[in-house]
Amino acid sequence: MISSEKMSVNWKSNKINVIIKNSIAKKEALIMIDQIICGYRHTYILKEDGTLSAWGINNHCQLGDDTYTDRAIPEQVGDDSDWSYASIGPVHTLAIKSDGTLWAWGSNGHGQLGDGTFIDRVIPHKVGDDNNWSSVSAAGLHSLGLRSDGTLWVWGANLKSQLGVSANQDEYLPVQVGSNNDWEAIAAGHDHNLALRSDGTLWSWGFNSHGQLGDGTTKIEPVPFQIENSHTWRSIYAKCSYNMAIRSDGTLWAWGENNYAQLGVGSTADKWIPTQIGDDDGWATIALGTNHVLAIKSDGTLWGWGPNSYGQLGDGSTRSRVIPYKIAYDDNWEFVAAGWGHTIAIKTDGTLWAWGRNNYGQLGDGTTEDRLTPTNIMKHQIIPRKPLY
């Protein structure tokens, strides 16, 4: 049965207990994975021990390792072990520590790091002195954040009104959006945003060239407005110029840009209002790539659709799919994340899998070879726990 708990695009999963082989000491150490996050061509893992590991492209030091060197295998970010949440955009990273402080690194040309400067940061850099951050969402050139008091904050690029604070000027420090204190989840697209409030209502604002705001128009909206008169939204996901959301009944809805059939509705026509994908009501969690989508149902099966030039759907082919297509016959998928042409996922047995584009080592398997099917990149064993859906 699907819970009514709301999730953002970067929803933090229940901890996954795994045993990972220590390649140096040849001993087994119990750890737990909290989060898997895919960026443009890079990947992050947040472990229960509070460490962050990253791999893939590093041209803007988005891996936070004080270099611009790409990584083909996971490598820990610094020495800190008190990270609790992370979100990655194409060229910058945001993360929250267990004390509620916010940290950022990578490109900062539009103030998207929120530290009041234009200075790029090559290692994690503390943003202000506040210690009540609960969630963040990193977009192309702007950022969103929620505080523990339910207030919504924005910073970075604002040329297309994506910050929701009316004036089309960049903000280099976090600025509050309105005065509401009942925001529960956030999801940042390239130039637009989605947010959920505690009453189950869905709100959006920003650029709207492909109907990604879901109001039936392509008009820019500079401040948050409600989509539909509905209180049934459970989780939200945004990427580039399209969105997906799951309602409390487990049905899946999509809208926005659809040039690669990423909406999964059987066509390549944009949708300007939320449109249901099929008739199924068992959707548990979704991962939006730049233009491909992976989804897990409550029965543990994995589904994919959209472009597949690099095997990012994992079905062994390079054939695109315009509607949800079942990937293999496994029914033990636990969590999935997607980037630009690559996908990372965990099974309920604790094994970590990757497939798709790998030109910058974003799959983390030590090579730069693309993979058309799920490839085990770490040997894990799960300790049974409560399912996330």
Low-confidence stretches: 1-30, 380-389
N-to-C order of helices and strands? EEEEEEEEEEEEEEEEEEEEEEEEEEEEEE
Portion in helices: under 10%
Fraction in beta strands: over 45%
Kindly report how far apart the N and C termini lie.
Answer: 7 Å
From the helix content, strand content and strand pairing, which structural class follows? mainly beta
Helix segment tally:
0
Strand order of the largest sheet: 5-4-3-2-1-30
Please give the number of β-strands: 30
Query: Main β-sheet, in a few words?
Result: 6 strands, antiparallel
Mean pLDDT: 89
Describe what you observe in this structure.
The structure is a single chain. The chain is mostly beta strands and 389 residues long. It is built from no helices and 30 strands. The strands form seven sheets. It has a six-stranded antiparallel beta sheet with strand order 5-4-3-2-1-30, with no helix packed on it. Strand 15 and strand 16 (202-206) form a beta hairpin. The protein is globular, with a radius of gyration of 19 Å.
How do the strands and helices of this protein lay out in sequence?
Elements: E1 16-21, E2 28-38, E3 42-47, E4 52-56, E5 71-76, E6 83-88, E7 92-97, E8 102-106, E9 121-127, E10 133-138, E11 142-147, E12 152-156, E13 171-176, E14 183-188, E15 192-197, E16 202-206, E17 221-227, E18 233-239, E19 242-247, E20 252-256, E21 271-276, E22 283-288, E23 293-297, E24 302-306, E25 321-326, E26 333-338, E27 342-347, E28 352-356, E29 371-378, E30 380-382
